[in-house]
UniProtKB/TrEMBL annotation, chains A, B:
Residues 187-307 form the Formiminotransferase C-terminal subdomain domain. GO terms for molecular function: folic acid binding; glutamate formimidoyltransferase activity. The keyword Transferase applies. It comes from Hyphomicrobium facile. This is glutamate formimidoyltransferase. PANTHER family: FORMIMINOTRANSFERASE-CYCLODEAMINASE. Gene3D superfamilies: Formiminotransferase, C-terminal subdomain, Formiminotransferase, N-terminal subdomain. Keywords: Cytoplasm, Folate-binding, Histidine metabolism, Transferase. Pathway: Amino-acid degradation; L-histidine degradation into L-glutamate; L-glutamate from N-formimidoyl-L-glutamate (transferase route): step 1/1. The keyword Cytoplasm applies. GO terms for cellular component: cytoplasm. Its EC number is 2.1.2.5.
């Protein structure tokens, strides 16, 4: 069986084309690896990348790409709006096919150790590699962002990295590495209003920290556009850490009901990047109240692609 | 790129275990072929099989299996309620991965010719292999079923098979072979009533022939059970020939609205066998009004499994 993992490393340069090209280069034309996509964001000064590939090939490619980012990005000059702590901000690893989470955990461990060994960039482990429960998510690690962490790490022992001494690398900052069961879903809900205050209010209803869903940490209300009509709107931008457990239709329906309280309609859902078919099939399963002819609906045996992937394996 | 096709041959014995086992045997333990499933139905006296595999392997396996069926099933003794014309009733071929419909058409052509050559069983070509427009679907070919066709073929030249003389095989009847773009979806809609007359009425609203959807030929109203509650119910059993063009949510919503006219709720949708993920993702896309961040929702690039299948290819 061919093993595949998914990874979405994030680099802290969304502006300089020549830098971005060099960071992306190791992901191109590499047998056993597919660069699904990358979307540099100049406002965020951030480069998210999506990769699918065989574990060993992925490890080599990520390490080559990180070497470039550490060489070319100076965090003292970088000015992103997105939370981040280093030139390579996060490297998260997910099982995609015939790989256990334990194998992903080991791979993340190796990548973290190599990063510190080769570049002396301190490493924070997250997800299944977290040394402490508060580091299973990114929020506690990233508190205060690069600038805040740079200062805090010198005096607060609880902010110290998991690999490396208690100080950040002078230009590269620090890097977060870890394996997770499930790729986050990046889901925006589009409201038929330009009032961002309403979007922010609604965002607070679904965010775990303020009483919402445990699988939703990151949510923000932002001005945006409805793609289908070009209308100016406000969106709620949502990061769902386990969309099989907290499904998109449940979030969507809850926001629809709450938006009505403000006299606002929900216009659309927006999905950023790739998503596992199962997440969307789950929405169809709910909406059509699916059953099988002889029992409950079974995603594993009733979806053709699952059989195709098994045969190909 | 590894080529894969899908096929769902139907054999006319749903009762005799020893016969069913011999028909299924050629599909087991064959590298490059996966027997997705088979569900003998004693009432219908019919054995539907679902297969996924490489074209050449599939062709050999189907021909071996047909040889057994022609040897073991006598249509003069078979008594099924399901429309059928032979021991091997239909062999339909669909593209599953990296195969064109033209390649499927050629494969169906070869299978049909081999069947006539080896067994002198007359063949009717359907789908993309149809010699006449009225044979693109099964209804005209199967008119009168085995018994009706056996007599009609002797006197009505318009009922003659495409391969073979104008008479059926004395025990094996005739076989329908053809390539189709899209696997039918078998979709039942479960009504909260035991009144089958209402189900039949609603079935007529969606059937193409009586003013409904062009992609729905077969629909029936039947007594059944709701799997989730065990309640006795009536179902509308629907065969959708192109569920990407006539999506399940549109059928479901129309039936919901029409059922309300009779004071009846829709309890569930039931899916029989496998379905392409895209069919259900399309329902989610509609329900969540999906867009991508930078444009329209794109099934091809935004579903992880598509990238995985490309890498594996």
């Amino acid at each position: 069986m061919a093993k595949y993992i998914l990874s979405d490393p994030n680099f802290s340069d969304g502006k300089r084309k020549e830098v971005i090209d060099q960071i992306i280069a190791p992901y191109r034309n590499r047998p056993g690896l597919k660069l699904i996509g990358y979307e540099p964001d100049a406002d965020f000064d951030r480069l998210p990348v999506e990769l699918l590939g065989r574990p060993e090939v992925m490890k080599d490619a990520i390490l080559e790409s990180c070497a470039k980012a550490y060489e070319l990005i100076d965090m003292e000059k970088q000015t992103g709006h997105h939370p981040r702590i280093g030139a390579v901000d996060t490297i998260e690893i997910y099982p995609a096919k015939d790989v256990t989470i334990e194998e992903c955990r080991e791979l993340a461990e190796e990548i973290g150790k190599e990063i510190f060994k080769r570049h002396q960039v301190p490493v924070f482990f997250t997800g299944k590699n977290a040394r402490r429960p508060d580091r299973e998510g990114l929020t506690a690690i990233r508190k205060g962002n690069y600038e805040g962490l740079r200062d805090a790490v010198l005096k607060d022992p609880s902010r110290a990295p998991d690999l490396g001494p208690a100080k950040l690398h002078p230009t590269a900052g620090a890097t977060i590495v870890g394996a997770l069961e499930q790729h986050d879903a990046y889901f925006n809900v589009v409201l038929d209003t330009t009032d961002v205050a309403i979007a922010k209010k609604l965002a607070s209803y679904i965010r775990g920290r303020t009483g919402g869903f445990t699988n939703i940490q990151g949510t923000i209300g932002l001005p945006n556009k409805h793609r289908r009509t070009g209308k100016d709107v406000a969106i709620i931008s949502i990061e769902v850490s386990n969309p099989l457990q907290t499904p998109l239709h449940r979030i969507y329906n809850l926001l629809k009901a709450e938006a009505a309280r403000y006299g606002v309609n929900v216009l659309a859902g927006q999905i950023c990047g790739t998503i596992a078919a199962e997440v969307l099939v789950q929405t169809a399963e709910w909406y059509l109240q699916l059953e099988a002819i002889n029992g409950p609906w079974d995603y594993k045996t009733q979806i053709l692609e699952n059989h195709l992937l098994e045969l190909e394996g």
